[in-house]
Design a protein that fits this description.
Four copies of one chain form a homotetramer. Chain A is an alpha/beta fold and about 300 residues long. The first copy, chain A, contains twelve helices and eight strands. In chain A, strand 6, helix 7 and strand 7 form a beta-alpha-beta unit. In chain A, helix 4 packs parallel to helix 6 and helix 9 packs antiparallel against helix 10.
Chain lengths: ~300, ~300, ~300, ~300
């Protein structure tokens, strides 16, 4: 079973968690969704993140979803989000999913952390709780967590903990941080893999700044796959053409809180999951919003056809 | 097995969760601690609150502690804190502890809530998740949660959900809120029980404003018991004399984050628990802080002796 | 001198404040910038907003800029941002700029407001301070202010204060709020003008939901002007074609804190202002960021040419 | 005219700003208030702080108050709060009050700062704006500002800027920070004066940890004066006896937002100022709160009499 490493590259799709309208986990959709992501070119998946509605699951539900997905992925790497208010829950879920064959775990900082010293101490506590043999992703998403991690703080954490092999980068603005991290590596700091989130809305710039790929849940994973390939081949104009075609929808999908409803709506329209349902307090798209997404999806198809010619 | 009701009065001590120095739950201390609280006059206990280090426990640990305490309490009411980032976890723990004989559950709002409408919707979701037959305590502690609930918002929640029978009041400043709630009841709104937290530092004023008692974890529960009794007997000067004697230590104990270390230190000195240990990231008192607490405890004993004469 | 009203429509550009590299106000650029905005089709300007670096100016500097711009605008409406931590400063600047012929003032809520009641009371205090004969814009920008104003809270404020004639709408997500406000008006509430901010990244959807135009500082105001015209003529596909062409740059410009450096860089490249300088703590774009913007500007020109054919 | 220095010791009272009921500055009360503070033993005053309702004043009002107080103080040191959202306003007021003979200025960090690096950069910008010949007080009050400054961050700021000669210490909990700073000085860092705020509720512990005195606005400044003297004479039990007598009222006065109404009420009862009025949105004490304060003041007098015998 493969693990993530400091040289991991490519696209890890942030997976949704499909539910039935009554809030029960839709296990039937799970396997098809995993197949869809890999069919579209994903290199791995990240499950039980914020977009995966992880905080709405019980421990046993989380574990059951992780088991099923890891099994279905059949050796392809699955990163599992284990963020929780306390270390014991993080440790418990980490142990369970690593035993099942996860490729690593992802941890975002809890909301109360303020000073650099508190953030550094937090990750030391996490690593000592889960063990330094477990590959870990640091999720840097200040808009959602309220925690700001400076480039130097992040550098200290990477120096302290070789088991943190990857950054899920979604600071906003965040391009300078990628440059800072890569420059520090050029000056001798060990390398970390940087996969970018934020719904992909800065993916071309991020790749040029030195990112290794994408880790986000945009409902057209093929976009991320192709843009990463084109950027890796230095075809930046072509990459940007493709990006621009998807951007109107990506922008719509990036709306905080609302974004997941958009993603589930698009995934359902694409036949990937059976229901758009989220667990409470999530809500379906209004009919006006559905029309707006329909309009953008139709225009996307048309624009992609134009680009092919 | 008794349940909390809108007319519940008295002192519910917020119980600590004792740990061994290695972070394992100290089950041996648990029973003695329960006995101590009731021996000192507590009417009930509230367990698995913030002070009980609840977010540091796994689900199975929480349940195991709740079981042991409910059993030891032998019919006396035990309220269980079930706050969690998601509704599923709240529902799961509520069902389990109510099945074991809990007197009710306590829920604080999660950090992200902002508008009145969001707060009102949150409690509607909680009640529909746990069922409206479960007696519930609303914990109003803006300093810790970051969520401000106005008097009118709270009134709307009480009107919407008769199963919310009690307020754990720890807004700061919060005296006007007690007056607002009692005035609304005088004008026809149904009654709720108001037990006050905030380490007890406003207990005399709170009782005169109409509170029904205290719900806090000050390490001398006998203080709360006596002050409630004296206030109920309109002996306000005597109540305040006693309060003033304890206040220097209460003030020291009220320091955010540090307070739990103080409480465990005092509880251990009083022989109630075997160890002062908290789970990480909690830390023991520094030696300077220990000396400060020792000084205050000695002065407290002296002052109580003076007052007896 | 024209004033804003509940039926004001069109594009009010959020004006930059040009500085010389040493931080002195660049009065020479000011007149040219005003001319540029109106030449590109702006219906009015909003000055001394966040993007105008208003908090970095002294009272006398603010007043001097306002005077010069109002004079240069020669009767076209100029809205002046007067947000400040205290009411006295708001009152002082409002009186001064209204005496000079401003079309109205704009007020964003200060950071500490939490409950609906506090927000409603704040705007009552503002209106009673500046007088209810001064037309006012309520700026709703939670990402920057930290204050969340629900649709019903906003409705109450509009009902209480007829002098608040306009909403600068930049909640995110915010489309539902436009729909809520327009539905309430359909049910009898008085009309307010809604001009949209957020760098314009939802302008087509906002216009279809019922907005009256745009109020933002995107460095190509002609885009906003044309999109508003096309949407008003129900030419949504054409509007979206144009929007999509600008979106890659708009998205780049929308980055919090960094956005102003992008705007000043583009405005300087377009010859509108002489220097890109911001007052501290603002900083110029890095050379990497400049290249990214250059790339997007070149692609924009190419795409606009394609669309013309 | 004396300036503050790294060895300044004693009590600097945070002065109220007296208003008439209609919100006009009550210049008549100003002189008497200054005399009262010095008669009670104050070594200096700090004016235009949060408690001085500084954000509610216009620039010219601030300057006029500062002039009158500096004149009345007749050579005794007056520190002036100059915190503002932008550097230009800080620079303008600093220059004006230093020209009038202020002893130094005080600056609290603005709300948006998050990382250590941002805080360090902010103070560098302030010092370069006001000039490094102006003695400055750093106000560390996270509960009010939302900005957390770690001991090491503070140390870096002190090392970078010798003109920052004093810390107004009101972190909570904050005792360890005093110990950290004094230990760093024992290891070679230059000394800063530490005067403590937080309404004085930890003054005895702060003095034993190495503080140089108090800087807070408790309405009985003679308490702070005597406690500092007793602590400096190592009479800790006597100091604590006195402290304990005042503590019930100090605790009441420390309530956030409400505290200023309490102070003005007590100051008016003591005949120091003519009116309890605050500028909006400040409000007078409710009649219930007035009774609570009356009760505590009467008990204080009684207890002080007991202690004398």
């Amino acid at each position: 079973m493969s693990k993530i490493t400091p040289t991991t590259k490519g696209v890890f799709v942030i997976a949704a968690t499909p539910f039935e309208p009554n809030g029960v986990i839709d296990s039937n959709s799970l396997d098809g969704m995993v197949d869809f992501y890999f069919d579209k070119g994903a290199d791995g998946l990240t499950i039980l993140g914020m977009m995966g509605e992880a905080p709405k699951l019980t421990h046993s539900e989380s574990l059951s979803i992780a088991k099923q997905i890891i099994k279905r992925a059949d050796g392809k790497p699955i990163v599992v989000g284990v963020s929780a208010p306390g270390l014991a829950a993080i440790g418990e879920l980490t142990k369970a999913v690593m035993d099942e064959g996860a490729a690593g775990v992802m941890v975002a900082p809890p909301g109360g952390l303020k000073t650099n010293e508190q953030i550094i101490a937090y990750y030391a506590n996490v690593v000592s709780t889960i063990g330094d043999e477990v590959p870990m992703v640091l999720q840097d998403f200040p808009l959602a967590t309220g925690v700001s991690i400076s480039s130097t703080t992040m550098g200290t954490i990477f120096e302290n903990h070789p088991s943190i092999v990857m950054l899920k980068h979604e600071d906003w603005p965040g391009l300078q941080k990628i440059t800072d991290l890569r420059e520090a590596e050029a000056n001798g700091r060990r390398r970390v893999s940087i996969l970018c989130g934020n719904a992909g809305v800065f993916l071309p710039e991020e790749m040029r700044r030195g990112a290794d790929g994408a880790m986000t849940g945009f409902a057209y994973p093929e976009m991320m796959v192709q843009i990463c390939r084109l950027c890796n081949a230095d075809k930046y104009d072509q990459a940007q053409d493709l990006f621009d075609a998807y951007l109107p929808l990506m922008r719509y999908e990036q709306q905080p809180a609302l974004g997941l409803a958009v993603r589930k709506y698009v995934l359902a329209k694409r036949g990937v999951i059976a229901h758009t349902a989220q667990r409470k307090p999530g809500a379906d798209l209004s009919s006006l919003a559905q029309k707006e997404v329909d309009f953008l999806m139709q225009r996307l198809e048309r624009r992609l056809a134009e680009l092919k010619n």
